[in-house]
Amino acid sequence: MKYPSFKDLILFENDDYIVVNKPPFVASLDERGGSGEVNILRLAKQYSADAQVCHRLDKETSGAIIIAKTPDAYRNVAMQFEKRKVNKVYHAVVDGQFTFNELFIDLPILNDGNKSVTIDRKEGKRAETIFNSIKNYRHYTLVECKPITGRMHQIRIHLATQRAAIAGDDMYRGKPVFLSTMKKGYRIAKDDEELPIMKRFALHARHLVFKGLDGNDIVIDAPYPKDFATLIKLLDKFDA
After folding, report:
1. 20 falls in which pLDDT band (50, 70, 90)?
2. Where are the alpha helices (DSSP H) in 61-204?
3. Which of 6, 173, 183, 194 is deepest in the core (most CB within 10 A)?
4. Among 185, 184, 163, which Cα is nearest to 174's?
5. pLDDT exceeding 70 applies to what percent of the chain?
6. Alpha-carbon span 14 to 69, nearest angstrom
7. How far apart are CA 40 and CA 68, in angstroms?
8. In angstroms, rounded to a whole number, what is the distance separating the alpha carbons of residues 36 and 49?
9. Which secondary structure element, helix H or strand E, spans residue 127, and what is its range?
């Protein structure tokens, strides 16, 4: 896999923070067992020696991620995350048609430590997300997801509880998106296998607002990466 230049990922930078648009398939931090793979933390440290990643995105999830350049900057954002003061907005494409209007999901999540999570009302930790439909297609819905808490896989499992699994998210029964499902008369050669439009689940961290050390808001918008933008373009063309 070809890794992008760190500079090309930067959406915002000042003396305290860098915000990057994380590409899909790049981990946020060193993964357990240290495979030595390139990740956002390593790339950031090559760019700014004391860099610390302030929160993580799943490896397949793309989008805005905050990196602190100093310990003070890191503490400042860590406190904002702890107090639920960071405003995060994700976009997801889900299987099926849904009309979510400020749908509030409050289902506790238990992380079993094995890269999977479950809804567990007794043992789980509080998890809250608000969902709004942005655009309905014939077979899919583009959904705005606002996580209030930050549990592992929170958006993915909360959507799955509504039978609105994210497209391509096989862990939560989301099916990959094929052009043949939406383009009438689409034919594939007899011996060819049709590949999905996206090779991952369709989730992107689109928007972030947090306060800098001076108390002023830092507002970030992360453009869709190529695969997500292509999916939306094809949905607009063939599934609207």
Report:
1. very high
2. 71-82, 154-161
3. 6
4. 163
5. 97
6. 9
7. 12
8. 18
9. none
- Name the maximum alpha-carbon separation found in the chain: 62
Strand pairing report for 203-211 and 62-68? parallel
H or E segment at 219?
strand 217-221
Question: In this structure, what token pair is assigned to residue 210?
Answer: 């947090």
33 has pLDDT over 90: no
Q: Which residues contact 221 (CB under 8 A, 6 or more apart)?
A: 11, 64, 206, 207
- The CA distance from 150 to 166, in Å, is 18
CA-CA-CA-CA dihedral for 186, 188, 165, 202, to nearest 10: -90
To the query of whether residue 58 is one of the catalytic residues in this protein, the response is yes
Instruction: Write out the two tokens for 90.
Output: 């994700």
- Write down the H helix ranges in 95-217: 154-161
Q: Is 229 helix (H, G, I), strand (E, B) or coil?
A: helix
Q: What type of residue sits at position 105?
A: I
